[in-house]
Every structure is written in structure tokens, then in C-alpha cells.
Write a structure and sequence with these properties.
The chain has about 130 residues and is an all-alpha fold. Helix content is about 65%, strand content about 0%.
Amino acid sequence: MSTENRQSAIIAAVERRGYREGWTDEQFAARQVAKLTEELGELMGHIWQLGQANGPSRWEDKIFWASVNAKPAFDYGKWENAEVTDADAAISELADIIVVACCLADALGEPDIMARALEKAQNDVGRGVR
């Protein structure tokens, strides 16, 4: 399956799960930034700059707390005023994030992170919206 088809299949699974219901594109985009922040904090809990025994560095601590705050924002935040101010610039930054995610996946020994993401999205459909 091509990467383009995987992206479409992931979105279809997310839609089947119910995560797009009731949100405009801008609201959904803003919520996804909160979700990305939450997931980044969770990821960081498994990879430490100074080693886990030494505790988080300053930037890791800030990301952790941003993640803690992003979770309830994603779940219960008010999104009616969400705004995408520059979609092209946002897409460029998103592409940067995906490049980093692919590099991280390679460093962790995952040869096809998009296939793994599709599997995750499809498995999550049954969980519904949290």
C-alpha cells in the first residue's frame, strides 16, 4: 500500500472512530495539535536526553507539562474559535514533523511507521471516542 493510501486509510479509521464528528476542519486541526503535544510528552517519557536516572532536562520538563495540559484541552477544551492562520506554513511544519518521526522510527528499528500507524488507527476504531 502506498503512503498516500495509508494516510487516507488512517483518516478513514479516525473518522470511523468518531473523532471528526462535530468539528470543523479548523477545530479538528487545533485539537490535533493538542493531541500531538500529548503524544510527544508520552513519547518523551521513554527517551531521555540525560538518561532517566538523571531526570528530565529543562526542555523535557516543559514538554512534559505541556503534554499534561494538552490532554484535557484535547478532551474538554473549547474549540469554537480555532483558527488556521497559514495552512501552507502549517503543512510545511507538519512535513518536518513527519521527517523527524520517520528518522526516530528508523533509530528505534521500525522500518515502516506509516504501516504501524495504520494498524494502530484501525485497531483503535473499536475504542470509539474517549
